[in-house]
Amino acid sequence: MVTTDEKGPLTAKKKSVIIRSCDGDEFLVSESAAVLSTSLKKILEEKEDRLIHLSDIDNKTLAMVIAYLSTHADDGLSDDLKRSFDQEFVSGKEFDVLKYLVLATDTLQVTCLCYTVAKKMADIMKNKLVEWVRREFDIQNDYTPEAEAEIRRLDAWAWDDRQLEDD
Amino acid sequence: MRSTNSSHDHYAKNPNCAVGHFLHDRAHSRHCLLTGRLDVHISTLLLLSKPYSHLDMCTRSSHSRPSPSFSLLLGHGSSPVSSRVGVGESKVGTMASIVRLGPAQQQVYIEDVEEMFDVFMLSLNTVIGDGSIEEFILQNSFKIEFIGELATFWLTEITRDNRRVSSEPGEQQVEFELPTEVLALILSQLNMRDNIRASAVCRNWLAIAASVRRANNPPWLMFFPKYGDMYEFYDPSQRKTYHVELPQLRGSRICYAKDGWLLLFGPGTKDIFFFCPYTREMIELPKLQSAHQIVAFSAAPTCPNCLLFTVKNVTNSIISVSTCRPGETQWSTVNFECPMTFYSNTWNKIVFCNGCFLCLNVNGALGAYDPENVTWKVVLRPPGYTHFFSVHSSWRAKFMAEHDGDVFVVYTCAAVNPVIYKLNLMHRVWEEMRSLGGMTLFASFLSSHAMTDILGKMRSNVCFSKVLLYGKHCVTYSPDAGRYYPRNQLYDWEEQDPFESIWIESPKDPSIFLQR
């Protein structure tokens, strides 16, 4: 295979990298896919080593991100196909999965996917009870009951009679 | 964080490995600020003199940006919340927020840590007060978070014992925390109603939600002059009126408005065309014969899925639907035999919803045209159909608007207050709405808009296309209060000239439009 990559002197030399998740699983990724992540690209520019250890991304999340990167690095796919891939990529995923995915895409600076996931999370959060959000994000309520009541009173219309969901 | 257990175990088994990776990654993440979180055994901090220099450089580069900001967050475990302390100028940055929690369970070799945290001493001292940093670190497990401009990295220092306790089932409280930027990105996608409710989650969320809260601009009301080329635009948010000369529109009358575009028809020339009053762009369409009926369109003519639609009766039982796309040379017409009579006349209300054109006729029956499958059917009878002699039979002007797949109809007459219905297509019923719940309906005769996230008194109201009090207030109806404003009286909207005014999306940059 002839390398026609012109992304830089370093990237031209090597074709794939190994990315290791925090639980020790290793993924072989083509360099053209890896450099779609701004963070990985910068590491590769500075580093001779072909092994990148991501100490805060678990194997399942990393596998998803790599699937995304590989699809988007595939020149044989049209932009329309990639767009529909993006939509399918986030649809049907559990909120819990998306949480780690958004964190991982932010860490790896995969801006486009980060945005798509964030949007999907926001879609799921619509019409949800505050208690649901606290539970899903594992957040302790640090308001005093008075302070929280005041927030609800200020914009009472946002807590109108429309049904709010708790699951 | 889901991965923390396993990663911790990994490090616990082989702390040196963790150190290695830590330094390895850290060394290359100076610019890219890689790594959301690092779980490091406390002893690894001994080796942190190296990253120190990187941090320093990182700080400097961030200083060269317009608004350098660093936040320093101390805490441990699952709930790094309590007080936030702003710290003034330090070598690190301009801001630090510090939280301390819980007792420590681990000894630290202070000297090295101090070297590492030399840069942060100022901030730390502010929080620690009289105590020394040694004591502080001895007493607290800690976590440090730097929020740079692009990304976040933070070192998590949680003692082994701590983590082991917290990872036990039943007592689990495995921490998950999103960096501020990511949370802001998510919250910025919420509408105002969900954003406000998100701000009740906790104090931190309140600050972030408020910083990304966005309001929509209400549409402008465009007035068509009886004579001359001077058009009036009324901005209800500023309560200002602008006058603009548009000679291009001479001899034509308004059909429909959507997405900042007007559809106009010349009764004399049979010309039908799109016009954007803000850019003065004009898009011509094939002539439409006998356009006595209203013509609607699905999206801005610059969109690939823009489709024009009009419907009329050929006979009592035959409905004729004409459609056209921008760029086509003629209108295509399909006739449908309609078992259920649907009287179509000039004052149909048409909206595009979920791929179909919905058409409300003067009696209140609703027909649907599906352009994809080329079908027409009458889907719904008027609300209150069974009470034929009730007050509902005297409904006069109707307004229909679409929002996010929902369809709303406002029934008005001069005898009683307006009634608002929401269309439930699934159960084929009209559901009466007692409140708009934060939504605003902008009702004008030919086309109406439903919008959320409108600030001020227009929220939860129906805004009609009439301005009173010398241009200071458009007539609104509040379902919550059950009355019109500014005057508590009833209006007969049927009496208004349908071609006199229409709501149109406000210009993105009004100043450019007005300077022309």
Automatic annotation (TrEMBL), chain A:
This protein is called what? SKP1-like protein
**Top-level taxonomic group:** Eukaryota
Pathway(s) served = Protein modification; protein ubiquitination
Q: Which residues form the signal peptide?
A: none
The record, for InterPro entries, names: SKP1, SKP1-like, SKP1-like_dim_sf, SKP1/BTB/POZ_sf, Skp1_comp_dimer, Skp1_comp_POZ
- Lineage of origin: Eukaryota, Viridiplantae, Streptophyta, Embryophyta, Tracheophyta
Q: Whom does it interact with, and what assembly results? A: Part of a SCF (SKP1-cullin-F-box) protein ligase complex.
Per UniProt, which keywords does this protein have? Ubl conjugation pathway
UniProt lists the family membership as follows: Belongs to the SKP1 family.
Q: Does the keyword Aminoacyl-tRNA synthetase apply?
A: no
Please provide an example of a Pfam family that matches this protein in its UniProt record. Answer: Skp1
> Start and end of every SKP1 component dimerisation domain?
118-158
From TrEMBL, chain B:
Signal peptide segment? none
User: Which Pfam family, any one, appears in the UniProt record?
Assistant: F-box-like
Domain F-box span(s) in chain numbering: 172-223
Q: Note the coiled coil stretches, chain numbering.
A: none
Under which name does UniProt file this protein? F-box domain-containing protein
Q: Which organism is it from?
A: Rehmannia glutinosa (Chinese foxglove)
